[in-house]
Specification:
Shape of chain A: elongated
Order of helices and strands of chain B: HHHHHHHEHEEHEEHEE
Shape of chain B: rod-shaped
Number of strands of chain A: 15
Number of domains of chain B: 2
Strand content of chain B: 5-15%
Helix content of chain B: 55-70%
Number of strands of chain B: 7
CATH architecture of the largest domain in chain B: 2-Layer Sandwich
Number of helices of chain A: 8
CATH architecture of the largest domain in chain A: 3-Layer(aba) Sandwich
Oligomer: heterodimer
Strand content of chain A: 25-35%
């Protein structure tokens, strides 16, 4: 039987110890790495290319889901967490299993068995996962993780000035700079808080309190001025949205 | 404070209507008595009653401003006696001046007016009494209504904060993660696992049995906080260091039970849960005869703090402090660089 290579990602040492102890007697699974936060995990996964992750959700700075967003082709995942409210999201992301802490050895072994079946069947979860991750989930976005070079940055949505669509990517303009992220306007329109953000054009979503002025540009077109000096085109639908929001 | 009669159109209309009725009765009685002609009767009833109607509006102010709950009954009575004499005097004098100047040609009327001064004064006293009574009724009705509203608001607030505090008493993630750590310890260090089970049990017992409205000693609170922190230290190892500076005499001072717990949990949350490095939690307790002051400090990473404003936890503490001490300034929150500081003052009786 082929050996499964797994990485444990959990910020608590005892939680990692437990997984290792539970799996000690099983020869066909080997723990090749341990990470205590999302940043380490991204590096370790890229270097060691594991088949399976044991992933906690609540971790400092970068939570389990945010970390996954930054991995292009993630392996199989078994979520192990004390939170019972993320199970739906986890399965939508094609997780093998979702274990609630504390859990028994049998439960973990069963989860690993499921993972083995998947790995041996050779279904690559990656593509599906990556696609699903960008699909609308009924959850409001409070921060966005972006990767620039080797650096990972977490942008609170309150720092966003506006978003601009660029083919398959979104340029995120913040008060300090700009960041490129894969995604669709639809995703951000659905997930950003509608009381704080507004879509003004096919290519633009603006943070409402950044708006300073709306000026007519030509017949039926308008230009929206922002606090940082940017001028954005407003479409007819965008104008309708603005009218609804500002009641003019 | 505006005169309640002038506050809305309805009360102005009723006030006017009452005085028109009084005026008509006055007019009819005068006409029936046959002492004066109809036109005299009309002018007199109009002027005297109009005058009192206006003076009556003015009587609101002395009542409103002299109103005091702990005034002695005899003082109130003397005040009114004096106000009554002055009011009636002014009223009779003004009526006299106006009517006599209107009818000075008619000596019969002047002498009639002079004769009628005693019963005019009597009626004046009666009017005064009625007007004052109406004002007092308005005042009592109002404060009664205000009290009812305030009481129901207070009740709602108490229930709400009770609910919220119940909800926030034990953080389920803390509980389950601790149990998971214990589960892990049973395999590698059974002795330590047992120790942690006992600590966790004591912590749970304290949290469940402690009645929040009761005051407890700082010693009991600190003991409980330390149980919590000990458990977190087992979970997080080096990542959490606790520094406590506690003035010995403070330990027997009183504070509301479990009120510091959410602050400590907050500090652990931002200092440890959300931090990759090692972090120090500082707790300082000072006191004097008037108050107990507790300061909690933790490091956090401002770049990763994405929630603005005060969370439910802090709001809960504020509303509990308000309910207990009737003050808004007992909890102070400060952020400087990467240090978060919460300071709570507990007044001592």
């Amino acid at each position: 039987m082929e050996e499964i290579k797994a990485v444990i990602i959990d910020d608590e040492e005892l939680a990692r110890e437990l997984i290792k102890n539970y799996l000690k007697e099983y020869q066909d699974i080997r723990i090749i790495g341990e990470c205590e936060n999302g940043f380490e995990a991204i590096k370790t996964i890229a270097e060691l290319k594991p088949d399976l992750l044991f992933l906690d959700i609540q971790m400092p700075k970068l939570n389990g889901f945010e970390m996954l967003e930054l991995i292009p082709d993630p392996p199989e995942i078994i979520f192990i967490t004390a939170h019972n409210d993320f199970a739906i999201k986890a399965f939508e992301m094609n997780a093998v299993d979702y274990l609630l802490k504390p859990y028994s050895q049998e439960r973990l072994v069963a989860a690993v068995q499921k993972a083995r079946e998947r790995i041996q069947a050779g279904v690559s979860p990656g593509d599906k996962l990556y696609r699903l991750i960008h699909q609308p989930l009924a959850e409001r976005l409070e921060r966005i993780v972006v990767k620039s070079g080797t650096k990972i940055k977490v942008i609170p949505v309150d720092k966003i000035v506006y978003l601009e669509a660029q083919d398959d990517y979104i340029m995120i303009y913040t008060e300090e700079g700009k960041h490129l992220k894969q995604g669709t306007m639809k995703y951000f329109e659905d997930h950003l808080d509608q009381s704080r953000f507004i879509r003004v054009h096919r290519s633009f979503i603006v943070r409402i309190d950044q708006v300073t002025q709306l000026e007519p540009y030509s017949k039926e077109t308008y230009i929206l001025k922002l606090k940082n000096g940017a001028c954005l085109k407003v479409s007819r639908n965008g104008l309708k949205n603005l009218k609804e929001k500002f009641k003019f | 404070m505006q005169n309640p009669i002038l506050e809305n159109r309805k009360s102005i209309t009723s006030y006017t209507a009452v005085w028109i009725i009084v005026m008509l009765i006055h007019f009819l009685l005068l006409t029936i008595s046959g002492k004066v002609t109809i036109s005299f009767a009309f002018v007199e009833s109009l002027i005297t009653n109009l005058l009192f109607a206006i003076i009556g509006l003015g009587l609101w102010f002395p009542i409103f401003y002299s109103r005091s709950d702990n005034q002695k009954l005899i003082n109130t009575f003397l005040n009114h006696l004096f106000a009554c004499v002055v009011t009636v005097g002014i009223w009779v004098l003004l009526s006299y001046v106006m009517l006599v100047s209107l009818f000075q040609s008619n000596t019969g009327y002047v002498s009639y007016f002079r004769e009628s001064i005693p019963w005019r004064s009597g009626i004046g006293v009666l009017f005064y009494g009625v007007v004052i009574l109406v004002y007092y009724l308005i005042i009592y009705y109002r404060s009664f209504r205000e009290n009812t509203i305030r009481e129901s608001e207070l009740k709602a607030l108490v229930t709400e904060s009770e609910l919220n505090s119940l909800k926030s008493q034990i953080n389920p993630h803390f509980l389950f993660n601790s149990l998971n750590s214990i589960s892990s310890l049973t395999m590698i260090q059974p002795g330590k696992a047992q120790e942690m089970i006992i600590k966790l049990s004591e912590f749970l017992r304290y949290s469940i049995s402690n009645k929040e409205e009761k005051l407890t000693t700082l010693l009991a609170e600190i003991n409980n906080i330390n149980r919590y922190l000990d458990i977190e230290k087992v979970r997080f190892g080096k990542r959490l260091t606790v520094k406590q500076v506690i003035d010995e005499p403070c330990l027997k001072l009183k504070l509301p039970g479990l009120i510091l717990q959410p602050l400590v949990e907050n500090a652990v949350k931002y200092g440890v849960y959300e931090n990759t490095g090692e972090s120090v939690l500082e707790m300082v307790c000072n006191c004097n005869s008037a108050s107990l002051v507790i300061i909690l400090r933790n490091e956090f990473d401002p770049d990763f703090l994405y929630k603005k404003g005060e969370g439910i936890g802090l709001q809960n503490i504020r509303s509990r402090l308000r309910l207990l001490y009737n003050r808004d300034d007992l909890l102070m929150i400060r952020q400087e660089g990467n240090i978060f500081e919460a300071k709570v003052i507990f007044p001592q009786q």
